[in-house]
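Researcher: Please predict.
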Amino acid sequence: MWGHYIYQAVTLRFTIGRILWPKVRSVAVRAVPRSDVGIRKSIQRKRGQILFQQTFYTTMASKWPVFLTATNVEPKILNKAWILIQDYEFTDPEDEPSFILLTSANLPDSTPKGVRQFTTTTPIADNDLADLSMDKLRDLIQSKISKFQDLNITTENWVMIDQTSLESEQCILVNRIYDDEAEEISWEIQALRIPLTEVYSMYANLDIANMDFEDWVDEDTGVQEDGTYKWAGAFEPSNEHIEKSEIETDERRDAALKAAKDLGHID
């Protein structure tokens, strides 16, 4: 059943994340919280590149908010978008996803259990976030910051699915800008329109400060008319292992799409 706040994600375990420098490939893992994180790091040098192998472990995981601001939502199209946004590289099929989809300014008292796929084609009856701009959504989040913190939902980055997102299989990742002088994260924002299949990696890397927002955007093109940057494109795999992993990830995603289609959840 569609609700005002649908599908959360909590993952209490982590697998190895890869950080490649210079900018070749960067993937962080599962749900990545800001609190209670331990890191073990080893460094290898190969062909002039530094490869960091990191293992993250934690006792609690924060949830990543996805706000539905589209005004004309076809359930099957949203179902597909929700499947595409999930992680298929590090997360097991039985794990809960790493996002919570919100369709109301009124947050729940507790977060409902998340699922990886929708099981209904019933339209959303009421979405009071529809047609909300990036700035107005930012103001809403700021006004309810204590509630988000109580629910352990991150507010340093968030995802928006607007009408263009549903029509193009993309989404908007919004990032709060760090104020160097104040030495804190400000409420000034910047945003990137990015494919749904790529947003998990970007969000995870931003969440643990593996990479900067600028590493993912086409800065030469600049901000577009809709207030977002263009995506800089996919990172090239640096070795055969990563290339094989990407192929396997695509296969698992395709299998999830096929299963959803067989059940009538997507076209």
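Model: Residues 1-60 have pLDDT under 50 and may be disordered.
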